[in-house]
């Protein structure tokens, strides 16, 4: 599985460490909340709301340099909008991967 990284954040910052730190803190603050909302809506079988949660989460997936995971998130979001839960395990693996990575930052 691909690993999260800060390459995109570093390229956006132009070397501005304060900007990098601020963006990382935003991700660390928002990600757990968005993940919790996703799980709540998914477990409640409210797949349209869960798709909205995936939509928000996929931006963080992209910012953390996870290109293949982003593609999975796009497909999973589309599946959820159709009431299809295919790719849920793959998406959960992505969330776990990011959670573990953010704990180390």
UniProtKB/TrEMBL annotation:
Q: What is this protein called?
A: Hpt domain-containing protein
Record the organism: Hyunsoonleella aestuarii
Q: Which Gene3D superfamilies match?
A: HPT domain
